[in-house]
Please model this.
Amino acid sequence: MLIASQMEPTYARTVYPCFDEPAMKATFNIRIIHDPSYVALSNMPAIDVSEMKDENGSIWAITTFNTSLKMSTYITAFVICDFDYVTRTERGNEIRIWARKEAVENGYVDYALNITGPIFSFLEDLLNISYPLPKTDLVALPDFEAGAMENWGLMTFQESSLMYLPSDKFTGRKAVIAITTSHEIGHQACGKQFGWFGNLVTMNWWNDLWLKEGLASYFEYLGATFVEPKLSLDKVFHDHVIQAILREDNEIGVRSLSASEDKIKGSSFLISLFDNITYNKGASITWMLSNFLTEKLFIRALNSYLRTFSFSNANQDDLWTHIQVVVDAQDEVQLPASVKKIMDSWTCQNGFPVLTLNLSTGTISQEQFLNKKNENSTDTYNNTWIVPISWMRNGSSQPLLWLDKSSKMFPEMQVSESEYDWILLNVNLSGYYRVNYDQLNLKRLARVLENDPKAVPAVSRLQLIDDVFALTQFGYIQIESALELTKYLAREDEIFVWNIVLLNLVPEILESTLKNYEVYPLLKKYLLKRMLPIYHYYAGLIRQNIDALENDYFAQVYLEKLFATACWLGLQDCLDLSSELYAKWMNSPEYNIPSLIRRTICCYGVAMGSDKEWNFAWDMYNQTNSTKEDKDILLFALSCARESWLLYSSLFANLVMEGSLPHFYRCGEEFLHDVLKVMAKFVIIDVQIQELQVFYNMTLEENEREATTALLESAKFENTERRELLMKVADWLQKNIND
Model:
């Protein structure tokens, strides 16, 4: 039995009578009556444990906790459990990590214990403040929907965010634990002055939720890369945070980061605010702010703000005021407008800009980045941002410039006729926007990459690739322009850059269907020629020195996609490696296929084999000690068989596992719509659309068919668009296949 509370955002009112709003802070005296074989935890240390008898003569324990500091209701917390813990003291702060007894005994929470104290110390030193509580408990919960929660002095986590198992050696799990732990510690308010993150200084109201979550999401990467120095801050932050939210924050109707208080309507709406806009966009805007201010001024301004508002509440304007005071007191950083005016353009408007550079005139213009192919994306969106432009010319960094209107000419950006004169904007993705270069600069950048990829920083190479494909997808440029930037890839040795390339050229949603198009053999020849160097590097490590990958975070998370693509393209060495490692597992079931490519190895081990390999996967699936992850991988592998009779066996096996053969027909409209969306990916010709329509007419009730017909029409349109796009890609590949 286990009890753990989650009060955020508005659940404290269901536990005790209170004014359950972030601005209404109080001190709390908490006492818990519980089974004496369990331990009770709360925000503050326990000061007394006594006993009482109820009317039935049963003995109960009463745990009384010290009076809390002044705080909001949403961070009060309690846990009643029979867990064990490990402990250490860091600068007078007793840190305890609680978990299931067997997990503690096996050392699964030792890593979390080892990094928690140093992260606290790092944040204290960075902000020159100390933690005000005498203890900090971190509790690993077997099931926790919120993932993690920053309750002051009693943080709660999903087990997977706090436990590091020996089998996690090549999974990137250490980085996940470091990032998640650092985020929640960021909220703890390291001292009387520290707490925008938000336990001491809290947002006035939930419309400024990003004030705590966005900043904590920014500082989590600083803390994580401090305790795991082999993680590259720039690379991880851009890959995890900025690139991820740029792909999401570009639709009509996506909300702004901050909103007026009257737009917050009810508790259910509050819950919807805990989304990627709040966390990732908030962190991205903070990253940009720190970059154009410099970290030194940013931290100085934060200190001023936090000292003023400790144990109280603030809104984003209060922060802008304190930053303005710091900016006005120095001469190094000059801004084109007030801090409030600059930052309101990013927090109070939805979306973000795309900057278009004309090299001939040195003119940069901006507009909101929206899908030009969408008929609802009209020019009525006149949002303008005040944009900091970091840039380099011919590999040399240049002074920061600002675009504070819809279009502006920068004489320093006019280039000569030399093909070696090139411009790069938004260096290392220091700003929250995309860049659309004219054809002249794109050609010059493509040439630079072919001659010397390292002349462009790794993060900027990632950004270039992602920007051009996003611009293609949204109708700003043609696919041929994007493909020009892939010619250099034989010299690209960063796997996180390769991952963005493969996500765009071989998206998972199309893997199953691309082989049906004439583009496949051309793509195979073009891509494999460029993939071979990085593939052979990692394949060599897999075969001879896999331990070298223990600290290669991006290999741990992206090697699967690289190997899956190599095998999908029919690279013989990849297929041979899959057969080799799968056979090794069959001969010695105690052997563990490297987890970072296990899904691919199992899939192609079955695909390249016969019924013997398929039956082995089936037997391993049915072993009682198989984890859910094991079962998912093996179920996928069963579907990789190339013999049709084995695929029928896979389908039958899957239906048996679901518990009922007529399962497909029992699940109703919602399930069938999901199935249709998957099946629609495979539709190439109109006859197939007609076949699906007949099937659904036979399966669905009459009142359910209208939505299905609309889905099929949409699939037909998307497939027509896809065919046209792939024909363009095939034409380009045909002309450039031997380059």
In short: The radius of gyration is 28 Å. Residues 3-19+31-71 form one domain.
